[in-house]
Amino acid sequence: SKMKPAFKEGGSTTPGNASQVSDGAAMTLVARRSAAAKLGLPILARLRSFAVVGVDPKVMGIGPMYAIPIALEKAGLKLEDIDIFEINEAFASQATLTVDHLKIPMDKVNPKGGAIALGHPLGCTGARQIATLLPELRRKGGKYGVVAMCIGTGMGAASVFELEQ
Questions:
Q1: Residue 23: predicted pLDDT
Q2: Which pTM value belongs to this model?
Q3: Which segments of the protein form a coiled coil according to its record (predicted)?
Q4: Looking at beta carbons, which pairs linking 76-82 to residues 24 or more positions away fall under 8 Å?
Q5: CATH number 3.40.47.10 is the correct assignment for the domain at 20-163
Q6: Residues 129, 88: contact at Cβ < 8 Å?
Q7: What is the Cα–Cα distance from 48 to 42, expressed in whole angstroms?
Q8: 125: part of which helix (H) or strand (E)?
């Protein structure tokens, strides 16, 4: 490739296999079931669990690899129970590492495209992932989905959602 490595000389992450910073806006509303009912709002899904982990900031991209198993355990679920994984691919290498390490079937990962295809609107990425996940779960007749991302300061986060039937 003629593209220069982004982080270190001889590295494999280039502008060609990394997400572009994009502009975007999204919103999610998290509320108690009783509050949503009182306001007449539809309930799309239930947040089953959430996990945040710390990793070495030099390899912050590996955060989802550690956050996903913790979030699944807290939800009382196994990897095989999950119908769709929305794993933010800030860089192709870090998303691929997570998928390979956890042995996630590729047909369950980012079925509508990830950040390399859709963009990475910093500050709105998690909401964008949820807004992509829930309709796709419904379309495919799925029940459980995971949203996960790395965080530039050396963290990883994952959430488990159960689609409201």
A1: 66
A2: 0.84
A3: none
A4: 76/48, 77/48, 77/144, 77/160, 79/103, 79/104, 81/143, 81/144, 82/108, 82/144, 82/145, 82/146, 82/160
A5: yes
A6: yes
A7: 17
A8: helix 125-140
Contact 60, 152 (CB under 8 A): yes
**Structure letter (DSSP) for residue 16:** G
Q: What is the CA radius of gyration of the chain?
A: 16
pLDDT in tens, 34-62: 999 999 999 999 999 999 999 988 887 88
Tell me which residue of 150, 136, 143, 128 sits closest to 77, measured CA to CA: 143
Instruction: Give the start-to-end residue ranges of the domains of the chain.
Output: 20-163
Average pLDDT score over the chain: 87
User: Could you tell me where the DSSP H helices lie in 23-124?
Assistant: 33-39, 63-75, 92-102, 115-118
| β-sheet bridge partners, residue 136 | none
Question: How many residues does the structure list for the chain?
Answer: 165
Instruction: Convert the pLDDT of each residue in 106-122 to its tens digit.
Output: 999 999 877 777 766 66
pLDDT tier at 1, thresholds 50, 70, 90: low
Quote the Cα angle for 55-158-112, to 5°.
120
Residue 6 has pLDDT above 60, yes or no: no
Q: Please report how the helices 92-102 and 63-75 are oriented relative to each other, as an axis angle in degrees rounded to 10.
A: 40
